[in-house]
Design a protein that fits this description.
The protein is α+β, with helices and mostly antiparallel strands. The chain folds into 2 domains: 1-49; 91-196 and 208-286, Protocatechuate 3,4-Dioxygenase, subunit A, CATH 2.60.130.10. It contains 7 helices and 11 strands. The strands form 3 sheets. It has a 5-stranded mixed β-sheet with strand order 3-2-7-8-9, with no helix packed on it. It is globular. The termini are far apart.
């Protein structure tokens, strides 16, 4: 694109086009279509693209569709890499709760229930890791009996369900119930960071425009407790060299953990703070 478009050739959208947009049905869908197309006309007017460049855009979107199947969601990757998914993630009240992050494509809802202190590592080598944590509300009250799901990549940066030939079923996954003080603990191995795939149209586009595809090492947590919003979050390894260039924009100050060296490996402590679910609380009060 030459970047010299002046808008004088009608590429900013004709009056008829603008009028049709104005006449679309009211509501969020109509508002979204109008807003997106108005911005698109502005881009066209500014960059003055050629028909070949428009064809290339259409081909890119077509390729994203072709790359999507039951095991790979290239459209989700597109939203993730450009920060759209993170932009619509729910935010904690007044910034006090633990920030939410993406569950990622490798989450499984069938992680086995394990006793506190169990080892998630069912196969594979790695630096031994001990994780201790607690679940509280915004005021610091322990949430006894909270359910804590955990999953993470192995020492090669690969999840069990993307690496079924080399890892046993449910490796590095588990579900725990916090004790009367809202605490939980388990053993595992230290996860490694990894890069998002660049063998598809989204990864190739990201590489071409200089976006990072690196993800720093992290551990996923999903926490539920009656009367509170379900929290899906991640704790990142603050010593990972990719901590400042996470491809999915998920690293927040409150999510950077310290993997402390210990004689037998490393240890990590986490505090997961849940926000109240206003709808559930209202139902409880009315009931």
């Amino acid at each position: 694109m030459d970047g010299q478009g002046s808008g004088s050739n009608g590429q900013e959208g004709s009056p008829e086009q603008r009028l049709r947009l104005t006449a679309t049905a009211p509501g969020r869908l109509g508002d979204a279509v109008r807003l997106i197309l108005n911005h698109a006309y502005d881009v066209v007017a500014t960059l003055n693209p050629s028909t070949e460049e428009l064809d290339a855009l259409v081909q890119f979107l077509t390729d994203v569709g072709y790359a999507t199947d039951a095991r790979r969601q290239e459209w989700v990757l597109l939203a993730d890499v450009f920060g759209l998914t993170d932009a619509v993630m729910p935010r904690a009240s007044d910034g006090q709760g633990t920030p939410a992050t993406l569950p990622g494509p490798f989450y499984r809802p069938d992680a086995p229930a394990l006793p506190l202190g169990a080892n998630l590592c069912r196969g594979g080598d790695g630096v031994p890791l001990v994780v201790s944590g607690s679940v509280t509300d915004l005021g610091g009250k322990p949430l006894a009996g909270a359910e804590v799901e955990v999953w993470h990549a192995n020492a090669d940066g690969r999840y069990e369900n993307q690496d079924p030939d080399n890892q046993p079923e449910h490796n590095l996954r588990g579900r725990f119930t916090a004790d009367a003080d809202g605490r939980f603990h388990f053993r595992s191995i230290r996860p490694a960071g990894y890069s998002l795939p660049d063998d598809g149209p989204v990864g190739q586009l990201a590489r071409r425009i200089g976006l990072s595809l690196d993800r720093p090492a992290h551990i996923h947590f999903a926490v539920t407790a009656p009367g509170y919003r379900r929290l899906v979050t991640s704790i990142f390894d603050g010593s990972d060299p990719a901590i400042d260039r996470d491809a999915l924009f998920a690293v927040k100050p409150g999510l950077i953990g310290t993997f402390r060296p210990e004689r037998a490996g490393v240890a990590l402590s986490v505090v997961l703070v849940l926000d109240r679910d206003d709808i559930s609380q209202r139902n409880l009060q009315e009931g």
